[in-house]
Amino acid sequence: MSEDIEIDTDDLERRMDGAIAALRTEFASLRTGRASASMLEPVMVDAYGQMTPINQLGTVNVPEPRMVTVNVWDKSMVGKVEKAIRESGLGINPQLNGTIIMLPIPELNEERRRELTKVAAQYAEHARVAIRNVRRDGMDQIKKAKGQGMSEDDAKLWETEVQELTDKHIAKVDAALEAKQGEIMQV
Fold it and tell me: Which residues form the Ribosome recycling factor domain (predicted)?
């Protein structure tokens, strides 16, 4: 009977991978000293009666390391896109040139870099918590399976496998955090 009971580790791994993917998305939105088109992803513009991402209103380019440009397709939307960027809290001052909005990325000072590393650490901690929650779900499944007749030895094997999966994903989070903090602090 205990042969029939299995824990879906593939599902647990998929959910842990999802936490890491979400972390990478959050890291992409963090502004480092370099220009990146992904830094505009969280900015929404009130266009045509609804909130719209900038990349659906124009072409976002990175022509040089410290410059992002947005070529707005509809001339009537240029002012709204500029306003949304200005009010987004990115700390960037947009400059208009016809339908092209230029976003010069200022050098980050030491204090701002340290703040950004703390924000990155918070994002990483959220990812670790999400991974631990998935681990807890896996351990709960094992407990339930014990109640349905899973042997102690099988339960120990499953617990070890879930813990190894958790450790592997936490290590990925730590590596991603270390890389991002290095990128932020790089002058």
Answer: 23-185
